[in-house]
Amino acid sequence: MVTLELNRVSARYGRRAILQEITTPPFKGGQIVALLGPNAAGKSTLFRRILGLLKGEGEVIISGTSVDRPVAYMPQDTGARAVLTVYESVLLARMQGRSLKVQPEDLAQVDRALAELSITSLGERDLGNLSGGQRQLVSAAQALVQEPEILMLDEPTSALDLNRQINLLSVLRRLADERNMLILVALHDLGHALRFTDASMVLENGHLVACGPTEDVITPALLHQVYKVTARIEPCSKGRPQLIVEEAV
Ligand SMILES: Nc1ncnc2c1ncn2[C@@H]1O[C@H](COP(=O)(O)OP(=O)(O)OP(=O)(O)O)[C@@H](O)[C@H]1O
Known about the structure:
Elements: E1 3-7, E2 9-13, E3 16-22, E4 27-28, E5 32-36, H1 43-51, E6 59-63, E7 71-74, H2 86-95, H3 104-116, H4 132-144, E8 150-154, H5 162-179, E9 182-186, H6 190-196, E10 199-204, E11 207-213, H7 214-217, H8 220-227, E12 229-235, E13 241-248
Parallel strand pairs: 5-9, 5-10, 7-8, 8-9
Antiparallel strand pairs: 1-4, 1-6, 2-3, 10-11, 12-13
Helix pairs in contact: 2-3, 2-4, 3-4
The site of adenosine-5'-triphosphate (ATP) has 10 residues, from α1.
Protein name: ABC transporter ATP-binding protein
Pfam families: ABC_tran (PF00005)
InterPro entries: AAA+_ATPase, ABC_transporter-like_ATP-bd, Metal_Ion_Import_ABC, P-loop_NTPase
C-alpha cells in the first residue's frame, strides 16, 4: 500500500522561507487528508514541494508504490490553456510519461474520468471557452485519468456549485475507498473537510500547527486561533458534525 510521510520538510522562494520543518505521520492509501489553513499559509507551496517542483531541506518519503508515476496533481485554476478539446486535453494528461501509442484502455480511462465527473458532454468543447467551474472539473479529470496512487488537489471545489462540490468530493471518497488511493486535498470549506476527510493537516505561516483525525483537529479553539472566527461544532440530525461559524474576531 502506498504511503506518504514528511520529515522536517522546508521550502523557500529565493531567500524567503515559506515552509518550516513540516513533519507528519505516514498517510496511507485509502485515506483522504485535508490540507487546511488560511490564505498564504503555504498549502500550494507544500504541494509543489511534495511534487519536487521546489527544493528544500527535509525528506518527502513515498513508499509502497507499484507504478512509475505514482502522484498526480490538480493545481489551482490557472486560466484557459492550449487550443485543445476537453477530450484531447484529458487524453494528453493520460499519456504523459506513458508510451506514445494510445491504447483502447487509455480511451476507456478518459471516458471513465469524464463520466465520473459528469462532464462527458463537454468532450468536444474547446478548453479555452469553458466556464470556471467546467474548467475545474476538466482539471480534476486530467488528474484522475492518470490513475495515480497519490492524488493531490489544490482547492478543487472553489469554482463549483453545491451539487458539483458534493459530487466531486464523493468521487474522491469513492476513489479512496475502492481504489485505495491516498488523496491530499487543500480545502477552504471546513464543513467539507469534516464530512469527507479522514485526517487534516493545518498550516499557519508555513508551520504545521495541527495534524490528526479531522474531527480532533477542527475545534473551536483552532478556528479561533488559525482562522480568526468564533464557531461551534454540533451534530446535525444525522449525527454528523456541523460547523456553525458565528463571527470574525
Ligand atoms: N512563486 C512564488 N514566489 C515567491 N513567493 C511565493 C510564490 N508563490 C507563493 N509565494 C508566497 O508563499 C506564501 C505561501 O503561498 P501559497 O500559495 O503556498 O499559500 P496557500 O496556503 O496555498 O494560499 P491560498 O489559500 O491563498 O491559495 C505566500 O506568502 C505567497 O505570497
